[in-house]
Amino acid sequence: MAVPRGPLDTLFQKRAAAEALTEGLPALTLAADRLARQMMGGPHGRRRSGSGRDFWQFRPYESGDETQQIDWRQSAKRPTPHIRQTEQEASDALYFWLDQRAGMSYRSHPSLSTKKDYATVLLLALAILLDQGEEDFTLIGSHLKIAHGQLQLNRFADALTSGATESPFSALSNRDFPRGHVLIASDFLMDEEFLEQLMERFAPLGRRGVLLHLADPAEIDLPFEGRAQFSDMSGHLSVTIGRVASVREQYQARFQEHRAKLRAIAERLGWSYLFAATNTPQSQILSKLSQLIGESR
Question: What's residue 71's pLDDT?
């Protein structure tokens, strides 16, 4: 299988693409807007009532509310009793992990992004949304501190694009991470034993998480014709098929089985599963990711 290669995108270009995804669209989906609004009310604020100390709002007293919550000064100014609500504080960080294996650099056509580049823009766009709400985040394997802010965003973008990250096995073994929430972006084209080991490493870290499964359209449909030679990105494995059409249906069935297995793993962990073909508009995937992350936090 030929692997088209184009010029490497600069860090500036990828950052600009991510910002355009979050700011330049005529309408970012309601899920992404809702996520941003929930996180924009102060340090780690999610704009939900909770046990924090910062004031959020006054609202009418309802049956079931505790009388100690009534603000008598405000109630005296209003026709009905009102309670004072504080804003929920969030201490959980979001942990990103991007698969840096060679196979993530595959694309079947020059008009498509590689799986890695497609994921890089998505993850950076989501980090920008999180940062707007002053939510902390980090990249597993990059040695970034858990933080937010412009400097953190710049370092996060650099780590995503440089590819100089540790494997999750060494990264998660060598650091003591507080429990948080996890987003794993990969094509998951790995043997089952490795996949199970990978998930065992991540499971203790995340209260909730999302598996973002990436695939090139050709990896889904196997659209090739005639005789074709397929090689892995490392060049260590090569297979020649005399007539691709004769195995297409079986291949597609196996691919769907693989997706079902990943979904089952996510459900067993109490996580979410999201599939993204690299010819899908990134705005659609970003909105779904934002909703899933918002629901898990």
Answer: 82
Take residue 257 and report the two structure tokens written for it.
């089985």
Any idea what the CATH number is for the domain that residue 111 is in? 3.40.50
| Domain range for 62 | 46-89
Among the candidates 56, 89, 122, a domain finishes at 89
Nearest to 100 by CA among 171, 201, 185: 185
pLDDT in tens, 247-273: 889 989 999 999 999 999 888 888 899
Alpha helices in the chain (DSSP H): 11-23, 30-38, 72-76, 115-132, 150-162, 168-174, 192-202, 217-221, 245-269, 282-296
How many structural domains compose the chain? 2
What was the pLDDT predicted at 213?
A: 97
Element (H, E) at 54: strand 45-60
Instruction: Return phi, psi of residue 236, to 5°.
Output: -90, -15
pTM of the full structure: 0.70
| 98 three-class SS | strand
Distance CA(242)–CA(181), nearest Å, equals 46
pLDDT at 178: 72
Neighbours of 110 (CB within 10 A): 8
User: Which CA distances in Å does 11 have to 15, 102, 106, 156, 199?
Assistant: 6, 19, 19, 11, 30
Q: Are 18 and 73 members of one domain?
A: no
What is the separation of C-alpha 213 from the centre of its chain, rounded to a whole number of angstroms? 10
Q: What's the DSSP call for residue 69? A: G
Q: Quote the radius of gyration of the chain (alpha carbons, Å).
A: 22
